[in-house]
Write a structure and sequence with these properties.
The complex is a heterodimer.
Chain A lengths: L15 H19 L6 H18 L11 H15 L4 H20 L28 H4 L3
Chain B lengths: L1 E4 L4 H10 L2 H11 L3 H12 L5 H7 L1 H4 L13 H19 L3 H24 L4 E8 L10 E5 L6 E6 L7 H16 L5 E6 L3 H10 L7 E4 L12
Parallel strand pairs in B: 4-5, 5-6
Antiparallel strand pairs in B: 1-2, 2-3, 3-4
Classes of the chains: A mainly alpha, B alpha/beta.
Chain lengths: ~140, ~230
């Protein structure tokens, strides 16, 4: 079956935790693959400790605001399918940094500030860090 | 202190060919006007296993979802952004299609070109140059050139560029800090920074473990690239 067939995605809009659990499992598998690069063991573990709890936390949400639409579920599953194809542990390290942000963007929204200064972040206002609306911000942790 | 062109060894000659590929300039130009989300998409696509655009459109519904710019509450210019995201995706996949061996060089060249493009928007008359060494009185010259320099007499800037946080290592940090310190010895306030096309948090994790001196080195990560152009 082609990887990109839409009907392989989970259905329904109340399966946020299930979807994010799948993402967390995929991330753990990627960590296992990356760990075979012994020289980078510390960095790989640092990435896991930093990002895995964030992915799990993205799955914890209640009420209508936490429901995922079909496109969001498909996006996460497509990201999972992508990292499942990786066989090179060095490439896995690159994706350990990228995958959490792809998932966060898929389930949490958008960034509106453009590179050339046009537009503005959707919830920006006085006193807010410009990165607060960033998909990266959700997983960035304390600074 | 003065800047000097780096001597071209065989590796540099090959790499210069990649730097001059129009694809590098096209990707960098699109990234310069991209949102943070678009830059994340480009990073993922250029790192990806699959090169069919539909995969990436599904993975980034906020960029390629139905009717951007048409629904209530959509940001101004949404339709233009969709076109921009499509162009960036197509260019990113062209990089990915260059194959595993070549695309890492292309990605590095893209980050350097993007850095130079953004810097040029801010620096005005001060020339932005590539692959330059910095020479100091009485100091043995570094073998490796700096990727991008802003050769301002008042406040010179040197940048090293990396595709991923994993590229942050002791050699790079030491070279940048040495430049800053030697410039300071000559009473020149040199700005040194590492530009990484990767998430800030990943870069900070890398830097937290680094033993090389880097307190005086700025980090410009994927989310904050526009700072190079003077925007926050």
């Amino acid at each position: 079956m082609p990887l990109s067939r839409p009907d392989r995605y989970a259905k329904g809009v109340n399966d946020r935790q299930v979807v994010l659990d799948r993402a967390a499992d995929a991330y753990r598998a990627l960590l296992d693959l990356a760990e075979t690069v012994e020289d980078e063991w510390q960095y790989i573990n640092d990435l896991g400790e930093a990002y895995l709890p964030g992915i799990v936390a993205l799955g914890i949400s209640s009420g209508a605001a936490g429901e995922l639409g079909d496109a969001q579920v498909a996006a996460v599953d497509e990201a999972i399918a992508e990292i499942a194809l990786i066989a090179d542990p060095h490439k896995a390290i690159d994706w350990l940094s990228t995958f959490p942000h792809v998932v966060a963007l898929a389930v949490s929204g958008d960034v509106s500030a453009t590179g050339d200064g046009r537009g503005e972040a959707t919830e920006s206002g006085p006193g807010r860090d410009p990165d607060d609306d960033s998909p990266f911000g959700m997983l960035r942790g304390p600074r | 202190m003065r800047f000097q062109d780096a001597a071209k060894d065989a590796r540099a000659v090959v790499y210069a060919g990649i730097q001059a590929d129009p694809l590098v300039a096209r990707v960098a130009g699109l990234l310069a006007g991209a949102t943070a989300a678009e830059r994340l998409m480009a990073r993922a696509a250029m790192n990806g296993e699959r090169t069919g655009p539909e995969v990436w459109r599904r993975m980034f519904p906020t960029l390629f979802g139905e009717g951007p710019g048409e629904g209530p509450g959509e940001r101004p210019g949404g339709a233009d952004r969709r076109l921009h995201a499509e162009a960036l995706l197509a260019a990113s996949l062209e990089v990915a299609e260059r194959g595993e061996a070549a695309r890492s060089s292309y990605r590095g060249a893209v980050v350097e070109e993007l850095t130079a493009l953004l810097l040029a928007r801010r620096t005005g008359q001060a020339p932005v140059k590539r692959e330059r060494r910095v020479l100091f009185d009485g100091v043995r010259a570094e073998i490796h050139p700096y990727d991008v320099t802003v050769e301002s007499e008042a406040r010179p800037e040197v940048y090293d560029c990396k595709w991923g946080a994993r590229g942050i290592n002791a050699d790079v940090l030491n070279q940048l800090d040495d430049a800053r310190a030697h410039a300071a010895d000559e009473e020149i306030a040199m700005h040194v920074a590492i530009v990484v096309f990767d998430a800030r948090r990943s870069c900070e994790l890398r830097l937290d473990r680094a033993t090389a001196e880097h307190a005086g080195t700025d980090l410009i990560a994927l989310e904050s690239l526009d700072e190079l152009a003077g925007r926050r």
